[in-house]
Amino acid sequence: MTDNIEELRIQRDEAGSRGDWDSAAELSERIIDLELKQQSYTTESSYPAYGGGYIQPIIVPFSSTPQWVQGTWKEEHPGTVPSVHVYRVLVARISYPYSDYTVRTIVAWDGASGVAMKSWVPSYDTLISSTAEEKALYFGGAVPLHAGRAIAVMDKQPTYGRIDLYMFPDDYLPPTTIAPTLTERQTKILATTRTYTSSYRRVMFGRYRVAQQEFDELREMGLLDRRGAITITGRNVVGDAAPWYEYEL
Predict the structure, then answer these.
(1) Which of 70, 114, 186, 248 can bridge 182 by disulfide, Cβ–Cβ 3.0-4.6 Å?
(2) DSSP H or E run through 153
(3) CB-count burial class (<10 Å; 0-12, 13-18, 19+) for 218
(4) Helices H / strands E in the chain, number of each
């Protein structure tokens, strides 16, 4: 089988047009694997890349997202503000909805035409005529990205909203953040703040004897706000570090 991605795309489209979905899916996986091997983009050093093709997302304010993202969310879920996770990647690895109660809207943006196309779970007739990438887009999977194109996966639950925004690396410049050097204890304080509810955080901080001065130092770094909640900068700096656990005591 050829390693030429453009030739593989032509073969995939031909397979889909004749209804050979198994071949189309196999070719799509081949294309994705080749594009992942070519992927040389990572986030800034403050947001390191991890093995296995996983890129740690950059958390950004909803107000800083593109207008097509804000407009769609406000239309679908007025009066709510979601968390936004930006992935700078060549292949969008879309996860399944978190639960059966999730309302999912997917928006594919084409920068060349300036058109945002909303997609929901299609009818059966629509599904069988979809490409392998479209199936992945609806139900979770991998979708190749190209310059000028982006995908916003918008999930809304009764008490929580989240947008996973997948963008071609050159199309999004992450905010310049100089991450301060943190001690292991400071990292644990931030990770515990990020992970637990305020009432349980107080229990954990009491057990680990966290002093007010330690909170003040993190606040001065801009990693906690005046209420003691973790800031967006704090979330990006701490990444997916593990919090304190009760069994560690």
Answers:
(1) 186
(2) strand 149-157
(3) buried
(4) 9, 8
Quickly tell me which residue has 């963008």 as its tokens: 167
Helix (H) or strand (E) holding 132: helix 132-139
Tokens of 163: 């947008």
Task: Compute the distance between CA of residue 98 and CA of residue 95 in angstroms, rounded to an integer.
Answer: 8
Alpha-carbon gap, residue 186 to 90, rounded angstroms = 34
Whether residue 41 is predicted with pLDDT greater than 70 in this model: the reply is no
* Cα 128 from Cα 190, distance rounded (Å): 47
What sign does the dihedral 42-85-56-136 (CA atoms) show? negative
List, for residues 58-71, the tens digit of each pLDDT value.
888 888 888 899 99
- Integer CA distances (angstroms), 14 to 94, 107, 139, 143, 177, in order: 25, 26, 23, 18, 46
- The residue that leads in pLDDT, 55 or 144, is 144
pTM for the model stands at 0.58
Q: Are 153 and 140 in contact (CB under 8 A)?
A: no
Amino acid symbol at 168: F
pLDDT digits (tens, 9 = 90+) for 84-139: 999 888 878 777 776 767 888 888 888 777 766 666 444 445 555 666 666 655 55
